[in-house]
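Dear Dr. H.,

I hope your travels went smoothly. While you were away I took the liberty of generating a structure for the chain from your last submission, since the lab meeting agenda had it listed for discussion. I wanted you to have the full record in hand beforehand rather than looking at slides cold. The sequence, exactly as received, is reproduced here:
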Amino acid sequence: LKKTNRDILDSSPMRLPWWLNLWLVVSSLICIVDATFVLLRPRSLPFGDLGWLYKPWHTYIEVDFRYNDPEDEFVVVQSMLNMVEIALNLIAVYLDFKNSKLSVSLANTVCNFTFYKTVMYFSMEWWSGWRFTKHNPPQTLLLMYILPSSFWILFPFLGLLATFRMMMSHLPDTQPKATKKRKVK
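The corresponding predicted structure, in token form, is as follows:
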């Protein structure tokens, strides 16, 4: 039997692109620090006993006041969701290392999750009239808020495209097979 391109694709392992694995690991490391900063407040704030661990976040809380407000429930829930995101990221990388095709669908799910969580965070700030960030000059807002956070929109979106394309290429062919017409005698 002759193998078609589809047969070769279906039997080949699905592996995540190297850049997506890198993104999942690096973003997990950053999100660990981010989530623990929020969840450990007020201990992680500048005056807290763990404040020395979070020096870069002490600059950020001057840009985004939501991070400086221990009473803000939204950022707490977002940080709890970050912990789920971190676990899913690392499981996807582990599954990819083990050559499991499940890594692609899990990476697709977590990219979707991260993309929409970040869009929601930006949307909440916009909808509130920039309540937590409007005090910033435009350059600070761009360099310290919009640009860094945009990576959590851009890379998950690219990850969604890459994993979706991979999953689509491995779907069974659903086109009806062409049948030969028999000549009626």
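Two observations you may find useful: The longest helix spans residues 138-169. Residues 5-10 have pLDDT under 50 and may be disordered.

With kind regards,
E. W.
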